Amino acid sequence: MLGIDTGGTYTDAALFSEKDGLIAKAKALTTRHDLSIGISGALENVLSASGLPADAIGLVSLSTTLATNALVEGQGGRAALVMIGFGPEDLRRDGLADALGSDPVIFLPGGHDVHGNETPLDMTALEAILPELAANVSSFAVAGYFAVRNPSHEIRVRDFIREKSHLPVTCSHELSSKLGGPKRALTTLLNARLVSMIDRLVGACEDHLKHRGIRAPLMVVRGDGALISAAEARLRPIETILSGPAASLVGARYLTGLEDAVVSDIGGTTTDVAVMENGRPRLDADGAVVGGYRTMVEAVAMRTYGLGGDSEVRFDDRGLAARIDLGPRRFVPLSLAAMLHGEAVIGTLERQLRSAHVGRHDGRFAVRTGVPDHLSAGLQPQEATLFARITDIPVALDQLLTVTQQKATLDRLVARGLVHICGLTPSDAMHVLGRQGQWNRQAADLGMQVAMRQRDGTGKPLAGLPEELALRIVERLTRQSAEAILSACLAEDGLGDIDPARSVLIDRALNRQTGIARFALSLDRPLIGLGASAPVYYPAIAEMLSAACAVPDAADVANAVGAVVGQVRSTVTVFVTSPEEGVFIVSGGGDNRRFAEEEAAMAEAEERASRTAHEHARASGAADVVVVLAREIDAPEVEGRRKLMEARIIATASGRPRVSASA
After folding, report:
1. How far is CA 643 from CA 113, 378, 583, 597, 610, in A?
2. Which of 172, 308, 398, 659 qualifies as a cystine partner to 58, CB 3.0-4.6 A?
3. Residue 636 preceded by cis peptide, ω within 30
């Protein structure tokens, strides 16, 4: 079995068998402009390391942090939101207006009530504006009022948009069966933005597997650690947010054997923290939070922070002593940019060092991400003009930006996922200190020298030597990582109101500050460090937290390992409501049906939920499916008589994925 994890910087691969465990591991750079290059590189490297033929692979499972990273960094394609039965005031709920930003929204009359009864749908406004929208967005999101009780209006709008525009359309009822229209609309909008990204990833993987003659089923890890088929992932890419972190938890338990631990996975863009108890991570009952948005996606109770080896290094010189902060944006490290583009980076840094004046944009470059041209649809004139001046070769910002207003324009291009910024990162600091060496150290040294020319509030340079500034950057990453881990642990303990970055007591404890009252803190379980750079970062982080440190040998490919040891799981909820005495309505998993007897309605709901969950699990590639049923019933007594408000019949179907050959 082959596990592949596509992260923001690296694509990892791991070959695994039920009999022998981990057979081989390998890495390749993630190539965002053409994901197939990174995937094929990792696959070929792991096959070479194992000595196995390609046709020995019987299952391929893919996890990714691309969707998570896109939401954390505010990236994604431009999507139009169609809201049926809602009004403009609903945009103010659950952060929907902030998430929508400048993307278009259309309100249509229609929708249903809690029992599935409809208000007539009117698509006149959509028919008038659809040709214009189709030329300026890459996908559509459709959310209807009480669509989880009757999805017919969403389906009609979806079919109309697909017929006229031929663009991807996501409906809210396809993503969640929970009530809460604005939050469901938010989840649907984010899903629509991610469709093209995950479609490109899955397509790139499928193409290379076909090229190599690998006919094994392709699975994708969901945010709760379960597996779904590639076809399902293309329809519901939002379910792959926290896919990489979820896979890392499964991999962490397999690689360390620890049942109780704090698991922290550092990548290029994010640090993901979760608490594992009795060998299982907790699921977030309220939905995953990524990039500041609470979604309706069931996922592990993972907290994601915009902090990683490739985080932007920011200097705040407003105080007497300059402060260093990292993230949340990901930069392409200067050392990596120079490895890929050579003199375009090295020559510019040398020029900036020779200059008598320190420029505000020194040490930074812009380069196209290489996404398909159609994803740049809808650019404003000033955005299109600036984008045309950025190429596949990094261009220095001191030459690209000629007026102050262009900085905001560039930020919008970055947010759209069209442009990368190259600049100083902790990965560069590690190259300067000699703790990493996979990329171009000369560029890291030059970038550090450019940065240390900046001055603090006293007028002194930030550092006297490149190594001095590099050490301060690494120390800052250690401290911010410790604060992130503490924040996650405190939240799990019900103390989420405490901010470790602002607490004086936590500051004294982490700094081991002496005093008459001495403060100390520690974790009650080991800290498992995962990620390619875990061995160089986590010993110091664990020491700061007074915790035992566990960094497994395969920490760099834990996600890929976790991707192939999980199970397919599908959960379906069917509802029974009673709008009036003697009437029971079954909704979900098919057309609404009315019954005169409660138990007959319950039996129909259980049969429907079981059948639908089983079908979904089989469609997602599960073999030997097992279905478990649960009932949740709200039926208070009113004037001495039981009144059914709502019953939720929950069917969970699970099984290991089918394997097409011995692996």
Report:
1. 19, 53, 12, 13, 26
2. 659
3. no
Strands 169-171 and 2-6: unpaired
The DSSP element (H or E) to which 323 belongs, if any, is: strand 323-330
**Closest to 165 (Cα-Cα) out of 137, 143, 192:** 137
Q: How far is 402 from 555, CA to CA, in rounded Å?
A: 44
* 149, amino acid identity: R
Retrieve residue 171's tokens: 């409906």
Does an H or E element contain 326, and which? Answer: strand 323-330
DSSP conformational letter for 433: T
Separation of alpha carbons 18 and 8, rounded Å? 29
Residue 275 makes CB contacts below 8 A (sequence gap 6+) with 261, 262, 263, 281, 282, 301, 488, 489, 492
Mean pLDDT of all residues in 74-96: 87
Q: Is the Cα torsion angle 265, 271, 277, 281 positive or negative in sign?
A: negative
Q: Identify the burial level of 193 via C-beta atoms within 10 angstroms of its C-beta, where 0-12 means exposed, 13-18 middle and 19 or more buried.
A: buried
Given a contact cutoff of 8 angstroms between Cβ atoms, the answer to whether 40 and 54 are in contact is no
Neighbours of 329 (CB within 10 A): 19
**9 neighbors 339 (Cβ within 8 angstroms):** no
358 φ, ψ (degrees, to nearest 5): -90, 120
Q: Where are the alpha helices (DSSP H) in 239-302?
A: 243-256
pLDDT score for 457: 79
Spatial distance between the Cα atoms of 500 and 177, rounded to a whole number of angstroms: 36
Q: How far apart are CA 269 and CA 294, in angstroms?
A: 20
Other beta carbons within 10 Å of 437? 11
Q: Is 641 helix (H, G, I), strand (E, B) or coil?
A: strand
| Closest by CA position to 234, among listed 207, 188, 196 | 196
pTM for this model (two decimals): 0.69
* Exposure string over 617-647, b if 16+ CB within 10 A, otherwise e: bbebbbeebebeeeeeeeeeeeeeeeebeeb
